[in-house]
Amino acid sequence: DTGFELICRLLVQAQCPGLDPLVVVLVDASAVTVARSLHALSPAIEQIVSFVPLALESRLPESTPHLLSVLASRALLPTCIYLACDEFALVEGWHRELELAYRTLAVGCPLILRVRHPDVTASEQSLLAEEEALDVAPRMIHDAYLERWRLSGQAGGATTVDWESLAYEYQEDNRAAADHYWVKARELGFLIGQGHAAAEAVLPSVPLEPSAPLEPLARAEHRRWVASRALAGWHFGARRDDMAKIHPDLQPWAALNEAEREKDRDIVRSTASVLQAAGYRPRPIYRFSWPHRSGTALRREVRTELAAAAVSQASAHAPAAVANVTVRVEDAITYECAQALGEHPGLTVSLVVSRSLAGLAVAAGSSTLAANRLAERAWELWDVPEDQVEQVMGRWPTLRLT
Questions:
Q1: Mean pLDDT for back-to-back runs of 10 residues, the chain (402 residues)
Q2: How far apart are CA 347 and CA 340, in angstroms?
Q3: Of 51, 44, 48, whose CA–CA distance to 232 is shortest?
Q4: What is d(CA 134, CA 129) in angstroms, rounded to the nearest whole number?
Q5: Cβ–Cβ < 8 Å for 220, 227
Q6: Residues 137, 393: Cα–Cα separation, whole Å
Q7: pLDDT at position 201, please?
Q8: How many C-beta atoms lie closer than 10 Å to residue 102's C-beta?
Q9: What is the rounded CA–CA span in Å between residue 55 and residue 171?
Q10: Close Cβ partners of 42 (under 8 Å, ≥ 6 residues apart)
Q11: Which residue, among 354, 352, 360, has the nearest Cα to 394 in the 3D structure?
Q12: Whether the predicted model's global pTM rises above the 0.70 cut
């Protein structure tokens, strides 16, 4: 049951321009039954996801080579392989067998990382959070929806009431929409931080960059909404009926009229302003690349100078901007550089690798756990073949030391 709920949450939150269409491979002895259950529960889910059930025994890590060969035969390149295991030894087995299988197939080793559980302090803070504090952003989303409804002059319904009178199902939909803002923020290129009441009054809204993916993000927002409604049991119909859970907009983006599409565009445009009004601090990411060549010494003083230059040049671009340095990690020296930059409080780091990050950590005298933590802190992580590294690094201006 827990795995089923996690799949449903994934379908809602994984909607982004880079995953269209979203393909989910279900690996379990009862995968076919699970796929049928999902389709029976939510017929409209077919619009935004394609399920590929593989009836493999998930408790046998030794089946990894067969799993990879099946994915290859179907031309499916995994973005993420999520394993829901209730035994630590089983997690360790899959982790080991995946790395071994990729090396045996000689197709390159992806970044195989185990997700760490949050520490006790973070858990306590989350558990002690007041419900009203958690609902600030969802309330702002609903208030913006009510404002658009009042301006439209349309008749009201079950959703055009104050938050306190809103049905739990619709409150949950607003919470899902608020959670998706972190996906939108990443695509729009800004970092979400905790705000401060005194600073927010003078902090300008983060504008959309001219190259921001407005239309693809609006499509993704529509798919997110379709997924949320479909999993709540709604169906497509020509006339909206809240009691029967029928909605005319439960259809692909291409079938929507311009008025409905504009609603999704408005949601994307208002991402930064809603977050700011909810007490968060959206800060634009200003990106550089650092194409340091392997075999060249990189003293500690140079790393400090590199971080200072990145922060200074990002601040010159925008006062609230956060510097991001993309580092090519290819040996122990560049791994140490990336690790030092990742620990710097004034910037974020992205990684471009074509080798095992864990192996590079060991070569630098560090641990595989440190490699996992570095990957978790990274703003973006590129795992590409050697001949594509320069192409990725060329996406951003080169950071130069004065």
A1: 71 85 84 86 83 81 81 78 72 79 65 51 49 81 89 87 92 90 87 60 47 83 91 89 91 92 89 84 88 61 83 85 91 88 88 85 87 86 85 89 68
A2: 11
A3: 44
A4: 7
A5: no
A6: 36
A7: 37
A8: 18
A9: 36
A10: 230, 231, 233
A11: 352
A12: yes
3-state secondary structure 342-382: HCCCCEEEEEEECCCHHHHHHHCCCCHHHHHHHHHHCCCEE
In eight-state DSSP terms, residue 131 is H
CA distances to 69, 114, 141 from 368, in Å? 27, 10, 41
Assigned token pair, 85: 């295991």
pLDDT at 208: 55
How much is the pLDDT for 254? 92
The helix/strand/coil state of 270 is coil
Q: Which residues contact 1 (CB under 8 A, 6 or more apart)?
A: none
Q: Which helix (H) or strand (E) holds 190?
A: strand 190-194
Residues 6+ apart with CB under 8 A from 56: 27, 28, 29, 31, 63, 66, 67
Q: Residues with Cβ < 8 Å from 276, sequence gap 6 or more?
A: 195, 200, 203, 205, 206, 282
252 Cβ neighbours under 8 A, 6+ residues apart: 47
- Is the peptide bond preceding residue 65 cis, with omega within 30 degrees of 0? no
